[in-house]
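Support case: copper (II) ion complex. Customer-provided input:
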Amino acid sequence: MATVIDTHDDHHDHGPASGLMRWVTTTNHKDIGTLYLLFSLIMFMVGGAMAMVIRLELFQPGLQFVDPSFFNQMTTVHALVMIFGAVMPAFVGLANWMLPIMVGGPDMALPRMNNWSFWILPFAFAMLLGTFFMDGGAPAGGWTIYPPLVLQGGDGFPFMIFAIHMMGISSVMGAINVIVTILNMRAPGMTLMKMPLFVWTWFITAYLLIAVMPVLAGAVTMLLTDKFFATTFFNAAGGGDPVLFQHIFWFFGHPEVYILILPAFGIVSQIIPTFARKPLFGYSSMVYATSSIAFLSFIVWAHHMFTVGMPLQGELFFMYATMLIAVPTGVKVFNWISTMWKGSMTFETPMLFAIGFVIMFTIGGFSGLMLAIAPADFQYHDTYFVVAHFHYVLVTGAIYAIMASVYYWIPKWTGHMYSEKMGQWHFWISTVSVNVLFFPQHFLGLAGMPRRIPDYSVQFAEFNMWSSIGGFVFGLSQVFFCYIVYKTIKGGEKATDQVWEGAEGLEWTLSSPPPYHSFTEAPEVK
Amino acid sequence: MSLEHAYYIPHDAKWPIVGSIGLTLLLGGFAAQLNGSSAAGMAMLVGFLVLVYMMFGWFGEVIDESEAGTYTKLEDVSFRMGMAWFIFSEVMFFAVFFGALYYIRIFSLPWLSGEGAGVATQEFLWKGFENVWPSNGPASVGGEYEKMGPWGLPAINTLILLTSGVTVTWAHWGLVANKRKQLIMGLAATVLLGFIFVGLQALEYSHGYNELNLTLGSGVYGSTFYMLTGFHGFHVTVGAIMLTVMLYRSMKGHFTPENHFAFEAAAWYWHFVDVVWLGLFIFVYWL
Amino acid sequence: MKKLKQLLASGALLTFVSGLTHADYGLNMPVGVTETSRQVYDLHMLILWVCVAIGVVVFGAMVYSMIYHRKSQGAVASQFHESMTAELVWTVIPFIILIVMAIPATKVLIDMHDSSEADMTVKVTGYQWKWRYEYIDEGVDFFSSLDAASNEARQLGSDIDPATVENYLLDVDHPLVIPVGKKVRILLTAADVIHAWWVPDFGWKKDAVPGFINEAWVIVDEPGIYRGQCAELCGRDHGFMPIVVEVKSEEDYAVWLTAQKDTAAAAKLAAIEDLDPRELKMKGKKVYRSTCVACHQKKGEGVPGVFPAIKGSVVATGNIDKHINLVMNGKAGTTMAAYKDQLSDVELAAVITYQRNSLGNKVGDVVQPKEIAALR
Ligand code: HEA
Ligand code: HEA
Ligand code: CUA
Ligand SMILES: [Cu+2]
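Agent response - structure generated as follows:
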């Protein structure tokens, strides 16, 4: 009873078309997942290369390599590429690969649209990166694209706006697909409260995406009309307010940062039980905590704007609401630790990255909490202390979880084991260097170094040098990561179906690599 | 145990890549146009045509599949959920512009006119500026203008849209009861009302531009007015086109009382557009 | 006690970068020289220590588990996966901790918002890329931009070692001067894009938003020179618009104020006289090098696509009235600002004359300060 209908039964029954067009026209969730993941890896390298330019220029005081406006372009595009090009597509790629399998479905619910979600991205990023070659260069107003500054941009400005629109369209379609897949494609018996946590966190993330990507689209549309069509949304002379943009942007932006972390929470909640050989502690409270975080994320946005001159009541409200997020996030952290507690742990590479995540994300969370204290934020704001905070949650948070997931699932995807020895090296080099890279930035910020500057006074020289050295080593170790992935795709020890001794879940019941159509027969759910 | 229903997984989707190319040409062309490039109009046109081609092809393929009986209940549910969440994302898009309107009226204008913490702002930067709505700001951007009142065309348009909401529901009843004539008449009336709405809206804009000196550049009033009504008008146009397609398909006999998701999707969309209009009528024209 | 706490704090931080640190640069937030800054510092240390304490517990438990509950130690996994009590505990305790932090934070915040009963008011306006200080009711009004030495050293490929420049990037030509112990109300706004005014020793920063005025205040306890920087990305030279505040005793401040008023009066008189074209050009070069060079570049070549060249420019070689108008009133929607408020009549006349007769241009005409004055 094969129950997946193939349109092209004549040639490949259950296999893909061949050649390049296979990838362009594919509707298969695993193919599209692979495309997303590879795209994300390329973008990580591109964004990382820009970070290397930033760190190179900041290696010493004085301007050595780039013009200040090029430096600002680097900062801006680095962030846009990393967030919209590396982390988000990586998560969507993981969702594509794993969600249908984890819920026991044959594929994503809307396969053609799935293909489009992906195939908008390369065009969008070609447009964004193309601005480097235009008059006036790439956008240089920071990834937060605040007016009026961003309106001073050159020819690249409208291209950036439309690139963001396209990324938004892609994300919304991807999110709709995730929601529909989860609601409609579950195998019989797979109730909502039996779904693996990765599925749960993505489910909630998808709602965040649908709710806030259109908000970003609206915000950038107003920028466009302010620049080209004489509107005055963000111009006091006409009765508007530049701060209005900041409210709208952060109404998108704060949920966005949880979009960048909730799937990571899901990944870690899959990995820790596997290597502790013990069921996840507090499954249902994990679900509720994730939902609370998502809910709170909509009412804290102005903590990015404590210094714009809000009324006292506003500042108090946003301070309290922001602090509250520490509670559900704490629940998650404590549950992970309880899962490890009295387990029987082994420390393969995925587990190392997951533990690295828990520790360093928590450090980033602590600095987040410090930033949430409004009067103290008057000092921290727009300094390297903030830069340190968000790289701890983004690099050692989101990126670490993605690394963990790649090591965890790559044997399943390719049918080959990665080299454990290389994986361990990758972890340790990365972890040492990333702390050399970002920890000193806390001190820089506290001592008074503003962010987004290409040059600084000499008192900051030493820590910047450390930070840059850490950056270069961390960068190289990611090149090493690419090599490990490449090797694993090419060959390696054959992986079993189960792969990890303690692993549970439907994905481990399929062969490694899984058949082209994941579950042609609905699996049994215990 | 097997999957209860077959789930249809199409192969070799070529329309998405066509769509991406079309979208890129259209938006890239528009961007180049804004930068003053002369060849850009051509790129936009080509991009637009490619997108139209994509939609014909893509929807055509889906319609063929649907007519061939490829879909079961399960796919139908997927489509429904997909459409519903798409409409939700549109709601959020409109919410931004409404939010901007409220923010401007509740926070930025009072601040500029010296209320509360804004004393110094008015005293040092915008002496004498008073907060009265509508406003084109302390610098009177765009010059003298008149407000667009609610009780002329907008009120008529409200009636038109509300009526069209009724006619589309009436058509749906016809469809469910398998009364083809009612379906077609109801749909035709809805489409007609939709296009009349768009026409009247165009009339109103021309009145605004030519007689009231009310333009996009008339400060925040002009900005919020035209952006909100403009995006809404655009959505009405899209909705009316969708309904036109449904009318055509109804006449071809595509829909059955059990199976007519496409019709319902278009109708949902139409109701969404309707509700947004009510918001506009109240907050943009009236209050 | 406070000293001890500070010592402990920096000690704890020091261990993180063991051995690398010297005493001559900051690791921690400065305690500062105002009541506010001390309150903020204490708050900062409180939350830092709370976080450190939580971290010790959380990471301690993790490390313990990693050491003792590993398979290679023969650990056998138990299968518990729920405990209502435990979960309640770790929901409620953090909540209580948060309340403990929120109380002092609220107090400090309320204090900071009270800018009433100020002794004097200074209006601070951010420009790309300098600050303007207007002493309300005193008629003193001047611009403050990066000092010449830093400016020279910071150019790309200048080959000047920043370490040899005193207060590199943290010095200005005209510092803001305020009296000690007085409540100074600061009104913040901007002329072009958003900037932010920040002196770490005062304990706060605040945005300067074009078209709006934000209020803040400061009472400095000790005379001295305090330095800060613009803290909101404001374009190409955002990194190069420092803030320097000189806090003087009341008598010194009074002396300074009188001197300022005198020079302002003298400058007004000077504008009446016609100047020799050579002198105009020389003065113009100075203005150009300090004000225009950031965008139009040293040789007037501009930055293609962003800042037009002056060399051979239609405006700078065409009708002089258009040229004067552009420089005085700027061009809306671009970074070309209106310079009529930023430069004096002499400076405007000089820089326009310079642009028309240098940088590869040879128009040969001259504009005199009084012609500019007539256009105001
Ligand atoms: C993945 C992304 C991510 C995540 C998860 C977070 C998480 C948090 N962030 Fe962060 N943040 C960013 C990404 C992220 N942030 C980015 C990108 C910026 C800068 C944007 C820009 O300006 O460019 C930013 C900036 C930013 C600011 C603005 C700073 C400024 O510009 O002045 C603030 C202020 O409140 C803040 C707060 C927080 C808080 C309170 C959390 C909380 O969610 C953290 C909660 C976690 C913990 C607290 C740790 C675990 C908890 C326990 C162990 C329980 C017990 C703990 C206590 C009771 C203390 N963040
Ligand atoms: C997910 C998001 C993400 C990620 C992964 C990163 C990753 C990194 N970031 Fe990023 N960053 C942001 C999001 C992110 N960042 C954001 C939102 C901002 C704020 C922007 C703004 O202010 O508007 C920012 C800003 C920012 C700044 C501040 C710039 C400024 O204020 O002017 C710095 C400075 O050190 C920095 C550094 C780095 C480094 C070294 C990495 C590293 O982790 C990167 C490591 C990866 C590689 C290096 C790639 C692999 C290597 C190669 C391609 C080969 C070349 C290698 C060598 C030559 C060694 N980032
Ligand atoms: Cu001014 Cu940054
Ligand atoms: Cu936030």
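The longest strand of chain B covers residues 7-8.

Case will auto-close in a few days if no follow-up is received.
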